[in-house]
Amino acid sequence: MGQEIECQMEFNGKRHSGKALLETNEIVFRGDLRLKIAHAAIREVGAEAGQLRICFDAGTAVFDLGKAAPKWADKILHPPSRVKKFGIKNGTTFGCIGAIDADFLQEIQEAGGVEGDSPELVLLAAPDRRALKRLAALQDRTVWVIYPKGIQSITEGDVLRAGREAGLVDIKVVGFSSSHTALKFTPPRG
Fold first, then answer.
1. Which of 119, 135, 118, 120 shows the shortest CA–CA distance to 183?
2. Is 117 found in the same domain as 169?
């Protein structure tokens, strides 16, 4: 998701100024108060008169988001699927390099994605830095690199560096699962 808005927020009877960020698994507020609200902790969400009201385990936070309030409420209540985050639609051809999550492959096929010999989209599983060497042969494709979070054998910096060295352009990062992140690369334009 990765949306952010400068706003006012009320929490525990006090108003705070800062920036609200709508992330895949949490809402973050950074300002004179720092607050993280995990989606799993949310009990109720509503939007009315430009305000997003979130009731969660630690209380109620009310964000003044204007026209964005109903959109944020909808995204919290109906988060995009992994297939949607990856931009996969009916007829999208894809290929896999490495061990890709079987549940995700099923989600792709249910959405109408088709595994093919000359795919428009490549999913590259990168459990460590060695797997990133394969990017050099994928300069003419859109590539999603799926790699583990929070380990030293491969970092976001490693993935970015390898993609750029292969001549690709990084354009998007999404949460793939609780343990993995996905970074999208495309060939340079024109």
1. 135
2. yes
Domain extent for 39: 3-77
Phi, psi for 34 (deg, rounded to 5): -105, 130
Taking only Cα atoms into account, the Rg of the chain, rounded to an integer number of angstroms, comes to 19
Residues 99 and 51 in one domain: no
The fraction of the chain above a pLDDT of 70, given in percent, is 98
10 by Cβ neighbours in 10 Å (0-12 / 13-18 / 19+) ranks as middle
Residue 160 φ/ψ, nearest 5 degrees: -60, -45
DSSP 85: H
Judgement on whether residues 94 and 60 belong to the same structural domain of the protein:
no
Q: What's the chain's average pLDDT? A: 93
Mean pLDDT of 150-174: 94
Domain count, the chain: 2
Q: What is the pLDDT of residues 110-147, one digit of tens each?
A: 999 999 888 999 999 999 999 999 999 998 999 999 99
* Same domain (yes/no): 162, 100: yes
pTM attached to this predicted model = 0.74
Does residue 181 sit in the same domain as residue 128?
yes
Q: What is the dihedral of CA 144, 148, 149, 150, to 10 degrees?
A: -140
